[in-house]
Amino acid sequence: KVYEDVADLPSLHYDFVIVGGGTAGNVVASRLTENSSVSVLVLEAGPSNQGVLDAQVPFLESGVSDTGTPYSWNYTTTPQTGASGHVFDYLRGYLLGGCSSHNGMAYTRGAAADFDRYANLTGDEGWSWNRIFPYFLKNEKWTAPADDHNTQGQFNPAIHGTQGPISVSLSGFSWPEFEQRVIQTTTELPDDFPFNLDMNSGQPLGIGWLQYTIGHGERSSSATGYLTPDIIQRPNLDILLHAQVSKLVNLTQSRVSPSSPVTFQAVQFRYASKEIILSAGAIGSPQILLNSGVGDRTALGALGIPPLWDLPSVGKNASEHVYSGASWAVNSNQTVESITQNATRFNEAFAEWNNSRTGPFVNPSPEAGTHAGWLRLNADSPVFDVHADPSPGPGAPHFEMLLQPFGAAGTPGHHISITMAMVSPVSRGSVTLSSNDPFAAPVIDLRLLSSDFDALALTEGLKLALKFASAPAWDGYLGAPTVDLAAMTPTELTAHIRANSGPGYHIVGTAGMSPRGAQYGVVDPDLKVKGIAGLRVIDASVLPIVPGAHTQAATYVVAERGADMVKQTWTL
Ligand SMILES: Cc1cc2nc3c(=O)[nH]c(=O)nc-3n(C[C@H](O)[C@H](O)[C@H](O)COP(=O)(O)OP(=O)(O)OC[C@H]3O[C@@H](n4cnc5c(N)ncnc54)[C@H](O)[C@@H]3O)c2cc1C
User: Fold this and answer.
1) Pocket test for ligand 1, best of 17, 26, 99, 523 (most atoms within 8 A of CB)
2) CATH for 105-222+320-418+452-503?
3) What separation in Å is there between the alpha carbon of 77 and the centre of ligand 1?
4) 248 touches ligand 1 (CB under 6 Å)
5) Which of 69, 84, 211, 246 has its CA 20 to 30 A from that of 269?
6) Cα(571)–Cα(568) distance, rounded to whole angstroms?
7) Is the predicted ipTM greater than 0.90, yes or no?
């Protein structure tokens, strides 16, 4: 059951307490309570997703994701020196479902090489692409698009799951003038921009149709998919909302030494007899560990937090994508602005969604892409003189190119954009504490573009965007660029990128996996916190390096495998 008030909770003792009812946390709660002998409590800081219209209507996503809404943690980053000193809002979902209840819904699994690298970095073959692949299928329910269009040639059915909790579909409303030009470009410039039937095969390189965690015109999230009404009714599952966990309690108060590991058995006010599972996300999980005295001993001591267990990697190694882009006016009124800049059409589109779950509101927020391209730097690029290739292999991208029939928000007229992201960044940031107040916002320093490699690579990426737009397919359609990037020298382009880029909200790595016995890292490959009994982290923070993909699919498979590991430990 879902509880709004702690006083109503029926029990003090649970087998498992899951901190965070977000993307990963709800997967674990749902899977563990499949066994009726197990009791689970989920503690979620935010409110319910039920009745939050903007979390249901894909097009209205920003109403739930943006800073300032009641459903956002309202974080900001520190000034980002590599990005002209800008301070960015750092969006994180503050409601049941976490980021899966407010994200952009793009469904991208990443490259096989991303997961094979996780296997190498952890010494656990179980994280390799081939071994993880069944979990993608287990998570997914392939669904026809809302407009029921013929999807042949737009995806490969052989690589998708059909029975899982999360609906995945192709776009349910089309922008034909734009889409035809994208596809035409793949035939005109096939060397640089080959068509890829399905970017989720493990071989993402090329341009393909985007898939979204949307079913029948509505957002599919961990809250809607893994906490269906019948699952919520399970007598062995309690979910407490408005419950922000400050720190974990060490009931045994045992001395810290490698031979007598610390045992965590409680959070604030509830007992977990088997395990506490931290699923508070890549910001929340390290924050709770640090508040609990698990982290860099010196830094904790300096803040007046008694260090309990020295794990210097907690909150470090934050790995995040960085986005920049280009936009052009177009000689057409067939862009998403025809809805966002016209109140009548906006209201009609909303009414259509209400009546039949069709129309433009079935697609994600206005700036969503119709297609994505996953691209690489040239093998002989001089950028590799600055830093060795950080990508996990030749089948994995350096860049994501998002193709959007929409310009910059607030600019009148009709535009298209090509957003370009550096998805194999060298830069690493951190999540640290500002004080010993466990409820104070953490310090989020992504160190975006702090590596020159990232800035120089993204410069090459923007050149690829310009090349894409130079294909004959766009002749007569593209008007003036919003900013004339083609006229810039490479140095000017790099400076432009530093002044005009931002984060992708894809942070991972702050409780990263490393091999068992390694002196670095936060969790072992079985997601148990190193040196601590009774505590795992199961969420995006355990991925040691950001995949070349939006991160929800990777988070879902971490959670599915994590739940299996917990079941295995306790023979459930
Ligand atoms: C605006 C935005 C757009 C995105 N777009 C996409 C996209 O289009 N495609 C994609 O694949 N990925 C996208 N992502 C990234 C993706 O959604 C995340 O990587 C993923 O969902 C993270 O899952 P998680 O379980 O690690 O954390 P979360 O989903 O954030 O879950 C953490 C949960 O823990 C709760 N919590 C935190 N601290 C505490 C505490 N102290 N006590 C109790 N509860 C707590 C939070 O409220 C939250 O519910 C986007 C992210 C954002 C923010």
Assistant:
1) 99
2) 3.30.560.10
3) 16
4) no
5) 69
6) 5
7) yes
